[in-house]
Amino acid sequence: MKLPESGRGVLVSGASRGLGRAVARAFAANGDRVAVHYGTRADEARATLASLEGSGHVLVGGDLADPADAARVVDEAAEALGAAGGGIDVLVNNAAVNLLHPLAETPYEEWAALWQRHVSVNLLATANLSHLVARRLIDRGTPGRIVNIGSRGAFRGEPDHPAYGATKAAVHALGQSLAVSLGPHGIGVASVAPGFFATERVAPRLTGAEGDAIRAQSPFGRVADPDEIAAAVLWLASPAAEWASGTILDLNGASYLRS
After folding, report:
1. pLDDT tens-digit readout, 137-192
2. Containing H/E element for 92?
3. Whether 151 is catalytic
4. Choice among 151, 191, 238, 245 that is catalytic
5. In the β-sheet with 248-251, what is the strand arrangement from edge to edge?
């Protein structure tokens, strides 16, 4: 059985705004049905839902750092998407936190708490959602895709956000392990590693001297648009990208080149 080109059920975690919103829109424009997940930004998530083309989309809220809540999110998304199709065919692990914590300036108690938060959301939630969705696909006997949102910071280092860089590196490694284990079941797993891209959250950083310095990181003299990252995610979730399973796709405008 081959993964369809469109009409799939897609769960996008952390889709209330930014890249998650762009990814949800890309799949909806492709003719897929999207479950828009949010943690706390319900109003923004509803705005994402309202902006999607087509029909059959659904809103699901929950704290993915809680394994029980993660399971509920998948159950609700699968049930809602299954009403119009087969359930969840594609998972995009986008939800993440990225909180400032340079070692030299962060008290130990705060440091430890922030590391725990990053691991719980960025890594463990990704692992748990992947398990929950993959098991459903295996039980249904249908192919599927998992696409993880990693980061350039996993390779170049994040001195002010070390837990973010470390957990994104772990997400890349997790994706490669799952690509090997899930391939026999027709489930492809890949990751993207974006560089800096423009969202509402980082808009203040793109003004003045800091903005000039960030844009100068790329020889193109700009940062990415979220739609550019979303287009790559859409392709990695497509039937044509099966042979890309296990890849980590750099999307940073040549701002960081790894060997």
Report:
1. 999 999 999 999 999 999 999 999 999 999 999 999 999 999 999 999 999 999 99
2. strand 90-93
3. yes
4. 151
5. 58-61, 33-38, 9-12, 90-93, 144-149, 187-194, 248-251
